Amino acid sequence: MQKALLFLAILFSTLLYSQGDPFNFDLEWSTYFYCPEGGNISILDSAIDDNHNLYITGGITNSCDTFPDNDPLYHFHGMQDAYIAKFNPSGEPEWFKYYGGSDTDLAKSIEIVNNHIYLGGRIGSMDSSLNFNNTYAGNGDGFVSKLTLDGEVLWSTYIGGEGSDAVDAIAVNDEGEIFVVGYSTSHTGLGTPNTFQPENMVNGTNRSGFIAQIDAAGNKVWASYYGEHTNGFLRSIAVSETGIYVMGIDMSHQAGNYYGTPGSHKENTGTDIDNFIARFSFKGDRIWGTYFGGSGNENNITPFTIVTFGNKVYFCGYTNSPTDIATPGAQQEFIGGGGSMFLTSMDDGGNVIWSTYAGIKDPSIVSSYIGNSLNIDDFGNLYLSGITNLSGLATSDSFKNAITLYDHDAFVTKYSAQGEMLWGTYFGGTDIDSGGQVHVFDNSFIFTGYSYNENLATSGAFLETLNPNGGGYNDIIVKFGLPRLGIDEQNKTHFVVLPNPADHFIKIYASEVIKEVVLYDLLGKLILSSSFMNETQMVLDLSHLMKGTYLLKVITENGSQAKKVIKR
């Protein structure tokens, strides 16, 4: 009976998820990422600039001659350095720079705002190359740095006290003000007066979470601890015009209400594991806070699980709670199989707008390690990614639409701002694959991750094979782009373009009412977009365009289709 119910749940989710936007993407390139000369390297975060260059960061334990590195100042220094690597839109490395000193240093978070790089992490070196403007407090400090897009350090600041401190995630507003979350064992030198919690309430050398603001010149404005017990961890941060939003996990197994404010979505927690979300003012005061979870356990294990758009906040995680997660009428209202991811929308007052489960777990799988991250595009669409063994996360037209039982694949799934799943795809082989942070731009998306599988890199990629030195998994970088026109044009389309090729004008004939017509060049740049009402035919003027091939996408009430159009 259990297997029959699981089959029906998977079938229902497949039918339900097949009604969104088509997955009009091809695999553009994919590369492994490691140091062939040996040592360990990790991708912990990534960011995209306005020209669609990718910047990745993390830690590295060896000098690597394979990477382009021509700057004598930013060479490999010690036991472990932080690094930044820049890749162009074609997947080729542009530069690689090391940041650190003779001890262990690590970058955990990277943002690009107004053509500057902002970096956050933990530093253990007193002789770092990061150009600090204050004094190292000892035992490992958190840090924030501002750099040019060429990787040149403008300033850096230590964040911490006499204990061990780290910055886990950063968010930057348009004014260049930086907001960070992390952990601290310090009882002096971090918290500031007149904030929510100036003093560390966690005893001894146990960790407490903290939130801090750094101004555009690199000076600490304020810092507040955020934690009452051990095993309460701040994971993610996002900033909007309405405030600072943070997310974490309470693993103390102690009943209480520290993270919940009166009248909030969930004021109290029991002895299970719950997530918590809070909104802070720009002066470090807590406006509201709430637990989020049901009768089971919730978890979020990456720093990329909360985003904002307008006056709304969105967050994701993993749950085995069958109740108090999804809202009535949600995309996936029932958990199915004993474990699932969740995706939730709140307003700026902390009220749940909608919440849905995402994915169905086979009950025969004992463990289900789910790492996930969340990002948002300029239209408020949400992109969920990570590692999963859950079914129901891919649409039928995707790059890989099914997952093998007991397999773990990377995945990317798109949701509307209203919580409707639009498309999704798995990525990987027969062994373990994981997706990290995902970035969406124009007609493309790119994600980082890791894999134990061979043959995932495309021909001619920067690193086509797994690391010959062994060591288990390899990091990967994957880019999808441009509609899959070859497949679409072999199928029955719902519109016709005449003439094609064309000199000046084309006429579009559709079998359904046209809602919108969008034209891209072959680099994915938007050329024009026009909306229509109650029309099944229309004329498009191409006379002002250069000669060449373009991508025409016609959107109707029931879907969309893309075709090549040639301007002579």
TrEMBL record:
Domain of life: Bacteria
Record flagged with keyword Signal: yes
UniProt keyword annotation of Signal present: yes
InterPro entries, alphabetized: Motility_Chemotaxis_Reg, Quinoprotein_ADH-like_sf, Secre_tail
Domain Secretion system C-terminal sorting: 498-566
Protein keywords: Signal
Signal peptide: 1-18
PANTHER family registered for this protein in UniProt: CELL SURFACE GLYCOPROTEIN (S-LAYER PROTEIN)-LIKE PROTEIN (PTHR35580), PHYTASE-LIKE DOMAIN-CONTAINING PROTEIN (PTHR35580:SF1)
Protein name: T9SS type A sorting domain-containing protein
